[in-house]
Amino acid sequence: MSKNNSIFERIEKKYLLSGEKYKLFWERIQEYMEVDEYGLSTICNIYYDTDNYELIRHSIEKPAYKEKLRLRSYGVPKEDTQTFVEIKKKWSGVVYKRRIEMPMQESRRFLNAGKVSGRDSQIKREIDYFMEFYHPVPKMFIAYDRIAMYGKDDPELRLTMDFRIRYRTEHLDLTEGDFGTLVLGEDDVLMEIKVGGAYPIWMAQLLSELQIYQTSFSKYGTAYKLEVVKDMEKRRNIC
Fold first, then answer.
1. What is the pLDDT of residues 102-130, one digit of tens each?
2. 20 to 30 A Cα–Cα from 132, which one of 104, 207, 234, 239?
3. Between the CA of residue 15 and those of 22, 57, 185, 214, 225, what are the distances in Å?
4. Interhelix angle for 19-29 vs 201-209, to 10°?
5. Integer Cα distance of 139 and 160 in angstroms
6. What is the pTM of this model?
7. Structural domain boundaries in the chain
8. φ and ψ of 55, to 5 deg
9. SS3 79
10. CB-count burial class (<10 Å; 0-12, 13-18, 19+) for 32
11. Which CATH number does the domain 7-238 belong to among 3.40.50.410, 2.40.128.20, 3.20.20.140, 3.20.100.30?
């Protein structure tokens, strides 16, 4: 399954698993799903937002429509490593993602200075409009270690397991490493199931049997809330 696709449209449902429940689930899905060719990989992101975090504050309110902009790399990139500038929109539970690929140094110029040469596409124009409207700046780094899987009988059925989700609000450049503060417990796993329609029967039955329930979870939103609490405690100590 390629990481270079530029357009995605799908339903994404999230589940938080304890380390113990993850092991049980992992054993059972081997019959139905295959790990993709990348195996365990590290995904690094810089989330862009307004100066006062307008986008994530709006997202936390769970509106029918929300959007975000991020820069993504697979592993810690060098200046010539290919990266992805992504605009992600969610409307009534359906996720629409558009992204363009360019080297790290070019992505940085594009997002931080609005400069990119020799490129024009519908996706770029969408990102240009987003940037002109919100004037976003880099606000948070988020990384996680991921295993991605696809259905043996249905390759469009996608499942991801994210481990050690971590964030930082300084050193906001992907080339500076994948270090950060953990968002969840060391053994907790965030699972996402991504489908174009209904779950296969075996998946629905397995989730029910193991009492794994859908949850609402945003990596960026959770990290933002942790930072707000941290900032409030800091101010309280000063007072």
1. 999 999 999 987 766 556 688 888 999 99
2. 104
3. 10, 22, 15, 5, 19
4. 150
5. 25
6. 0.89
7. 7-238
8. -65, -45
9. coil
10. middle
11. 3.20.100.30
